[in-house]
Each structure stands twice: as structure tokens, then as C-alpha cells.
């Protein structure tokens, strides 16, 4: 049990990506954020960051940090990604609150970050950025990787921030009841060899990268010498595991094939219906933690991604409603979602950095990915998030996840003031051809105190009742010869 708790604590990771527009200001803010066990004082933070800057002879504007909480200590870890600059070029270290740059105060209250998130920025001269000196975006995405006792690893988004650094005037307008859209909404990148290389890196190299990075972390680790022992993390994730028996899964897959729908579309729509009692469609928005690079495949006409999450008004799919009265109505409700997945006109655009990889913007590669991961035939049709390897942690690799096993993260619901569900995740195992033998496992995850146990169990129960209702309706139609 102690080892399990240690592993759970060690899976708290912060993936941070920072890109800024260098032309707009004489200083470029390159940030990396911390989630300390308790608030740090300014001298403590500046001391830790200053020591890190001086210890590395060559730094990079593309920095990532991770804080681990275990055995009463926290460890600050840095790793370098691209575009080097030298330590002597650092002009200063600032601990200004990250929200003053672009974020509305609503975001801080939405994600309950008060007193627990600290930002620090290295101020660099433009000459440190090289000849190009162009950065397009700054955002931060926070992931919590849950290592469960039975060996199933579920990756869920704990909370997502958007940091539009460098020039607050570049921030876009805040949608009514929503969160500001990112700077990337204005950026377009044509297909290029670099984009193709980035896509290949994401698909083939990155699955092996977490283990390699883990090996690099150790020499850079320094203990946090806090004055007091850290308290436990204020939130923790809960989960419930359900099994879809092989016979039921086979019927659901057959129903999807007959109507041009993937398992993903069916399950998404069922959960969308199951969440309806918790949603006020006048104020709340849909959050989907699908890889940002795949979002244009799914929602080609919607707004841009935020951080690692897609944020769209509920009107994109209509407000969630209770399960329809007939199977035909349900299928009609699911097909618009499926149409986004299958739209052949979609071409990925934008300069979107995700983890260590980057945006998949090469049209030919997108056609390949759509065929391999979105199609309703061949591989399991619900494995669109197989490409989510950039969000996999070393812990998940050690837990046995491989790219052919699907991880799908279900929509989250929230308003600008109160987040209803930090995460409700779905993990689907097995391939379509093996459904008769294996069935599949659905893992629902949510943050404690964000959803009450009654609310979470209600979503789970309504989702389970929904797929059983689908099967009964399909059997009834088959018996009637419809």
C-alpha cells in the first residue's frame, strides 16, 4: 500500500509549454510554473530559480518543470527542449503573478488556484532568441496521471490554464460565461516538411520518450528545502470501473457500424445525455481534453483549442438533454458529432505546440491518421486518442500502456465560476475484432469535492443505463425487421 501511495504521488506531473510573441516587447517572458506543497516566499522562489539558471550553462526558452510530492519533499525538475540561450543573457527573474498578463480573474476562481499556483519568468533580450525571434503562443496544461491499484492507468486533466504572456493587449475577448481564447486562434501555418517531421515524431518517436526523459531527470533533481512539511494535495481523484460484457460491446459496435457511428461517438453522446441534470445550458461550456492537434478533425468549425483542452460553447452540440425517447432520435443526436470526426474537408491549421511534439498540420499525414485512428473499420474505431502519447507519463509506460490501447477522455463541464467536473475519463480496452472475447473496461474518474459522490454515481448510472437501453432498442428493431 505504501508503494502504491508513493507511485500515486510520483505521478503528479506538470507539462508546461511557453511560446511568446517576441516582436511586441523588448523583453521575452519565458515562464515555468510550480505547484509547491505550500506557498513559497519570493526569496525562496527566486533563490530556487536563480540557482537553476546558474547551474545550467545553456538554457532554453522552451522549459518544462515538474514537481513531485512524496516523502515530505518536493523536487523541482527542468528539462530542455529547443532554442538555446546562455545563462549570462538572463536579465532578471520575476515572480509576478501569471494572471496579470492576460487571464481574467474568473479563470483563477474557476480552477481554484488561489495560493497554490506560482509563476516565474526569465526575462531575456530579443537577441537570445536567434535570427527568427518568433514565438506564437503561451499556454500551460496541467495533467494528473492516475495510477490505479489494478494496473489500469487513466490520464485525466486536472485543470487547464492559459497563459498569454508578453503582451496583455494580445488577449482575445472573453466569451460570455467562458474563458479567453488563445493567441493561436490568429495563427495559420501552411503544410511543410517541418510539420511532417513533427507528425512523425508524435506518432513514432514520442511513445518511447517518457522513459528516456525519466532517465535524464535524476541528475537535474534538487530537493526543495521548505521550512515546514507539505500538507497533502488539496484534491484527489476518485474512480469507478465498469465492465461492458463482450456480448454487449459487440452489439454496440455493430449498431455503430450499421449507422456510420464509432463507439466513441456513441459513448460521448450517452455521457452527454447523462450529464444533463448538472448543466445550465445558458452559462456553461463544453470542455474536451482531446489532443489539441486532433481537435480540428473533430470540430472543424468550432473555436480554437485552449492549452491542451478544447473549449467550445454548448451550442456547438446543443445543450445536453435527457436520453431521447427513440433510438432514431439518439442516432440523429450522435451523427453531428460523428460528422466532425469524418469530415473529409478538414485540414489542420495553426501553430500548435503540444508537449514535446508540435502541431500535426501536414494534410497527407492527417489523411493517414484519419484512416488509421478515426475510421470505423480495421483498428478499434474508438482509438482516436491513441495519438495522445504526448500526454502519457513515464508512470503510464511502466504501467503497461502501449499505443494500440485506447485512452479516451470524456468531456468536462464547467462555468466561468464553478467547475462541475474537473475530469470524467473513459478508458476503453480491446480491439473491435476481439470484442466478442474481451469486452471493454470503462473507467470513470472525477475530482473529489468537484463532483459529489451522488452526482458522479448519477452520471455513471445514467451512462450504463443508456448503453443497455441502446442494446434493447436495437434488439427490438431487429426483431421487428426495421
From TrEMBL:
<protein>
    <recommendedName>
        <fullName>Diacylglycerol O-acyltransferase</fullName>
    </recommendedName>
</protein>
<dbReference type="InterPro" id="IPR023213">
    <property type="entry name" value="CAT-like_dom_sf"/>
</dbReference>
<dbReference type="InterPro" id="IPR052058">
    <property type="entry name" value="Alcohol_O-acetyltransferase"/>
</dbReference>
